[in-house]
Amino acid sequence: MHSTWSRHRRAMRLLIGLLASAVVLPAYAADPPPKTAPAKQQSKTKQKPMSRNELRACMDEQDRLQAMRENVLKEQASLDQQRAEVARMDAELERKRASLDPADDAAKQALVDEEGRRNVVGEAYNARLPALKEQGSTLDKERQSWVERCANRDFDEMDEFAIKRERQRAAKAAGMATPAK
Q1: What is the C-alpha separation between 67 and 69, in angstroms, rounded?
Q2: CA dihedral 115, 117, 119, 124 (to 10 degrees)
Q3: pLDDT greater than 50 at residue 5
């Protein structure tokens, strides 16, 4: 019985850790970087507009950041599902503990086995959580860097149009280059 109690305490500590991490984990559903530079801000020194190559680099970086953001959101959703599964398993275990007949050794063993399966799922969640936090932190840093380099810079709208046209042509050419299946 002492072993079951210590497992129960470990399970509760793990649940508390999961709940605490849910509070600490930042939400990455924030707005994506703006598609075009916002209205120019008045400053004492007027910057030159971005060259076409600088604009292209900023647009490429913006696309890369959007892909990173989507990956972080997918991982966040997956971890949210896993956390919900752990909570569901905890509730089920608590229900079974409440209705457990102390004289039923087979039921006790089944409960211990189920606690073991729950702990495996909880440990897998805890193992994935630091990687998500690191991905989110990297995304935040790189997005901030993009904002500093690109967001408040003027550019020629004709350059933007030309770059978008280049991308469309490249996508169309890549689509034609792949064999039909």
Answers
A1: 5
A2: -170
A3: no
